[in-house]
């Protein structure tokens, strides 16, 4: 069978058949007396196998490996490759739906607004961090929903910074969507949401997040709320010191709160109450935190701890007393 007839019957173009021949994937077994390529039954069977494997999404190199029995690909590996590529196509379709929903959510009033929005979505959806960063930095006002979605999905810290900067300059309010993301089932989404809330100044949302089940969300919220001078963060800040989660930062915020005369008593009382824990490592950290508090209210606690039965606590307390000495 000549190449033209094979192309007509199989639906594979003559150009592609010639390419298969050039890369030695499918070489006709013979030629006619006039020099034309001639395909026999074995060649046609191999063509069927090639096209069947290509329909599964395999590259020509993978098709060759499978047919030549080189061991590079087993049937199980081929199935796994097809599954993975199918998932990638599904994710691309989902991304398209997300982009369309983003266009719909901002309700562009004029068709002239749509190209700018599409360009933003395309830039934010790029696989290159530098392209995503440029798209965020170039955004002026306008839609907030695509920026929020991008910020919640962004893993590159430089791009994330550009996105939160763009969010702070957008015309809309990103806080409700970011606060809703604090309840996401995905830990990374929750943590990106709380970081974005800190940077856009969503203090009310952060106050409500002080009892979030995720300790990272809770801690980040407490540091921001406490830095604003709100005593509502004190229980979580104490918890952070006790558990050893960013305890140095938490102690510093407690110290800043305690230097306000109206707040000092509450902070010192909270530290004193926590010192009742039986965990020695926690008590050492709490004792270290006394160094951040005003000397006078903290001194009595340090004096008591200087005689603590745990040597580490006692040594730490005595050192703090020396630092406090005029």
Note the topology:
Layout: H1 3-10, H2 14-22, E1 30-31, E2 37-38, H3 41-55, H4 60-68, H5 75-105, H6 114-124, H7 129-138, H8 145-153, H9 157-169, H10 175-181, H11 187-200, H12 203-208, H13 215-227, H14 234-243, H15 247-258, H16 264-274, H17 280-289, H18 295-305, H19 311-324
Antiparallel strand pairs: 1-2
Could you walk me through the main structural features you see in this protein, from its secondary elements to its overall organization?
- The chain is mostly helical and 326 residues long.
- The chain folds into three domains: 3-73, Orthogonal Bundle (Multidrug-efflux Transporter Regulator, Chain: A, Domain 2), CATH 1.10.1660.10; 76-201, no CATH class; 203-326, Alpha Horseshoe (Leucine-rich Repeat Variant), CATH 1.25.10.
- It is 68% helix and 1% strand.
- The protein has 19 helices and two strands.
- Strands 1-2 form a two-stranded antiparallel ribbon.
- Strand 1 and strand 2 (37-38) form a beta hairpin.
- Helix 11 runs parallel beside helix 13 (215-227) and helix 15 (247-258) runs antiparallel to helix 16 (264-274).
- The longest helix has 31 residues, at 75-105.
- It is elongated and about 110 Å long.
- The chain starts with a helix and ends with a helix.
- The mean pLDDT is 84.
């Amino acid at each position: 069978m000549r190449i033209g007839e094979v192309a007509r019957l199989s639906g594979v173009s003559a150009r592609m058949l010639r390419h298969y021949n050039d890369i030695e994937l499918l070489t006709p077994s013979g030629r006619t007396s006039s020099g034309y390529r001639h395909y026999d039954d074995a060649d046609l069977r191999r063509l069927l196998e090639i096209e069947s494997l290509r329909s599964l999404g395999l590259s020509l190199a993978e098709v060759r490996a499978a047919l030549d029995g080189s061991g590079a690909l087993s049937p199980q590996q081929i199935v796994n490759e097809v599954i993975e590529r199918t998932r990638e196509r599904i994710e691309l379709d989902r991304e398209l739906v997300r982009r369309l929903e983003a266009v719909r959510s901002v309700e562009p009033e004029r068709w002239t607004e749509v190209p700018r929005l599409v360009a933003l979505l395309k830039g934010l959806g790029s696989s290159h961090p530098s392209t995503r960063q440029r798209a965020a930095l170039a955004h002026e006002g306008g839609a907030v929903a695509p920026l929020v979605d991008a910020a919640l999905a962004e893993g590159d810290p430089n791009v994330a910074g550009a996105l939160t900067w763009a969010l702070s300059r957008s015309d809309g309010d990103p806080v409700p969507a970011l606060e809703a993301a604090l309840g996401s089932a995905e830990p990374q989404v929750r943590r990106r949401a709380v970081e974005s809330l800190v940077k856009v100044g969503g203090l009310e949302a952060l106050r409500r997040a002080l009892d979030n089940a995720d300790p990272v969300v809770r801690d980040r919220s407490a540091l921001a709320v406490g830095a604003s001078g709100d005593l509502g963060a004190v229980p979580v800040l104490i918890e952070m010191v006790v558990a050893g989660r960013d305890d140095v930062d938490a102690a510093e915020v407690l110290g800043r709160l305690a230097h306000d005369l109206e707040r000092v008593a509450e902070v010192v009382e909270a530290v004193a109450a926590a010192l009742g824990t039986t965990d020695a490592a926690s008590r050492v950290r709490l004792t270290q935190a006394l160094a951040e508090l005003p000397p006078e209210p903290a001194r009595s606690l340090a004096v008591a701890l200087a005689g603590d039965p745990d040597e580490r606590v006692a040594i730490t307390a005595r050192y703090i007393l020396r630092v406090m000495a005029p």
